[in-house]
Amino acid sequence: MTPVTVTGTTQEAGAPFGAAPPAGDSSAAIVTRGLTKRFRGGQVAVDALDLTVPRGSVYGFLGPNGSGKTTTIRMLLGLITPTAGTYDVLGLPPARALPRVGALVEGPAFYPYLSGEANLMRFDAADPSARRATARRRIADALDRVGLSAAAGKRYRNYSLGMRQRLAIAAALLGPRELLILDEPTNGLDPQGTREVRALVKEIAADGTTVFVSSHLLAEIEQMCTHAAIMRSGRLVVQGTIGSLSAGRVPLIRVETPDVAEAARVLGELGLSGVQAGAGELTAELGGQRPEMINAALVGQEVAVRGLAVVRPSLEDVFVGLTGEGFDVDG
Ligand SMILES: Nc1ncnc2c1ncn2[C@@H]1O[C@H](COP(=O)(O)OP(=O)(O)OP(=O)(O)O)[C@@H](O)[C@H]1O
After folding, report:
1. ipTM of the complex
2. How far is the CA of 202 from the centre of ligand 1 (A)?
3. Closest ligand 1 atom to 187 CA
4. What is the pTM of this model?
5. What is the pLDDT along the chain (331 residues), one digit of tens a residue?
6. I want to staple 285 with a disulfide (CB 3.0 to 4.6 A). Which of 29, 54, 103, 274 is the partner?
7. Compositionally biased, Polar residues: which spans (predicted)?
């Protein structure tokens, strides 16, 4: 795929926030340079990836299924070895940084008949680097952080889906963490569980922890994240703040009306460009116009306005605009 220029930078330059930080730069939570994974069969799952994850961000790592998100996360956590490229975590070589990184990749298997607290005890006991003397306090803190203190003694099998996932995140927070890496944390959750996890991610970030979270759901990343990178077929399409990603795309006004032809004429007279008529509605580029003035002009010309809305460009629009393809979650 041809690298795409967005906000004055290119994928190949790998520098959406300016020049890629030098090795050891601690202002970024994660920096990858040319990170590549080719599996034995020859498949390139991640191709020359240049990511810069600012500290303090909630960084959405977005891409259709199979676009290389989990492979990237597994490399960042030292679970698989890159074929090429380098990366720093918290300004350090990865092995030194990992004790300060919490991760949720394929949730831990919990015992259904044990309480949430007892499960965390077992989980912590299996970690040779965890200090026994501080286990109770660390577990209480982690349960408090994910809002499970009141349910600490309840059996895991009686937890809701959202509570189960919050417990899995608590397991990733048993030590002091500067960076939390979550691989598709809302996958398989019901709407309530999804809301709980989204709210929790924001709370964790508000405490100063950088959160790197993967998802194949565009709307989820838009709601939860300050920054995003979009992957496609192992390659980075674009990265930046959520605002900057859609900054180049203009807001639209959408008018619902039975008088489509007449409404199109009025919008044209107002000087709006890009007027597109559909069944019972039409859209146009808002330009510098105020929506209330557009509404007044339509009503003044006796157009029956059933609905009028300003439509901000979504990440999906950004993806489609850059790749010319729909964002297909089935990869
Ligand atoms: N161990 C492996 N051996 C060979 N190919 C692999 C391996 N793991 C992943 N792949 C392939 O690499 C590509 C990227 O997979 P990856 O799991 O990283 O994508 P993803 O974006 O996380 O998608 P999903 O959300 O579906 O897991 C896919 O085509 C996948 O089939």
Report:
1. 0.96
2. 28
3. 25
4. 0.80
5. 432 323 322 233 333 333 444 455 568 999 999 999 999 888 899 999 999 999 999 999 998 888 899 999 999 999 999 999 999 999 988 888 888 999 999 877 899 999 999 999 999 998 888 888 899 999 999 999 899 999 999 999 999 989 999 999 999 999 889 999 999 998 888 888 889 889 999 999 998 999 999 998 888 888 899 999 999 999 999 899 988 887 767 788 999 999 999 999 999 999 998 899 989 999 999 888 899 999 999 999 999 999 999 987 777 777 777 777 777 654 3
6. 274
7. 1-12
- What the block records as the tokens of 180 is 């939390």
Give 145's contacts (C-beta < 8 A, 6+ positions apart): 170, 173, 203, 204, 207
Q: Which residues line ligand 1 (CB under 6 A)?
A: 39, 41, 43, 45, 63, 65-71, 184, 216
At 283 the three-state DSSP class reads: strand
Domains of the chain: total = 2
Give, using CA atoms, the residue closest to atom 8 of ligand 1. 71
Q: Select from 29, 61, 59 the least CA-distant residue to 177.
A: 29
Task: Give me the sheet containing 307-311, strands edge to edge.
Answer: 276-277, 281-285, 252-256, 307-311
Q: Is residue 302 part of a domain?
A: yes
Q: Are residues 171 and 284 in the same domain?
A: no
Domain for residue 78, yes or no? yes
Map residue 321 onto helix, strand or coil: helix
Domain residues for the domain of 56 are 28-246
The Å distance, Cα 325 to ligand 1 centre, comes to 20
Domain end, chosen from 190, 216, 246, is at: 246
Residue 110 shares a structural domain with residue 148? yes
